[in-house]
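Just scan my protein:

——
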Amino acid sequence: MTQTFEIAIIGAGMAGLSAATALSEAGHRVVLFDKSRGSGGRMSTKRTDSGDLDMGAQYFTARDSHFRQALQGWLDRGWVAEWSPRLFIRNEDELLESPDDQQRYVGSPRMTSLSRGLLENLEFISQTRITGLQHTDDERWELQDDTGASHGPFDRVVVATPAPQAAPLLGAAAHLEQAAAQVQMQPGWTLALGFAEPLDTAVEACFVRVGALDWISRNSSKPGRQGLDTWVLQSNPRWAMGNLETEKSQVCRELSTAFAEVLNIDLPKPAFELAHRWLYARSEGNCNWGALAAPEKGLYVCGDWCLGGRLENAWISGQQAAQTLLERK
């Protein structure tokens, strides 16, 4: 390598972390920015006295050979572990055990263990919302945050945020802005519940095909989790769209009722409950872009929405953005 770049990556979810690790390993100086206090994006874990609750991505799978190779390294480091829950499907008529034998993985002892592991040795500026990119006279980039502060200059910028947050940053490259603007993101509600006594059910995870819910998991069945009998419920996008402004207390009541109906049990009063709204839970439809780039401007874009969702695809998208950047001399 004949030149070392100063590279800003906006967004410290899986796509941003993937691009950051690849570019750092290639010898470039990388600075990650994120509006949140921690890393991981939708690999979100809420730490509570009742246990660590995975409020975002519930698990991930590994199909791509390059991703499986990276996964093996994470397993060896103890950042992730296999999770083989007793899996069910709830359809209109009944609750059935699922024949699905797909291997699933989770961060250990919490989902954010993976993002924190990937963040090791990377420069990370948290709680900083980047609101604008300014191309300088010497073809570099200055980043402006919502306090009016400036960061930079940087030779290259990788935008790794959900599409609706990416589009306003991409005005310098119209085709990137237009691509991001056309992606529709679906909302979601997540409800975490903790019970002093374990619920009397064989279910540890369930795909729900009826009512308000889309997914149920016995969070405490995941490797390394401690505390109460904890559960995470995720709504389907249709229900979430109709309840974007619903009070959290009402969301808790309605999703708890749906939960009891899925399991066909009388639900005891929970010792703990926590609701979280995701405005950008998942992308609607499937794109197959991999990553987007305006190499002549030093501007790159990645995210799971560039490749049809899923945590694995976010990692692949970040790798592709990094590779495209590295190929541009």
Q: What stands out?
A: The radius of gyration is 20 Å. Residues 311-327 form the longest helix (17 residues). The chain is about 25% helix and 30% strand.
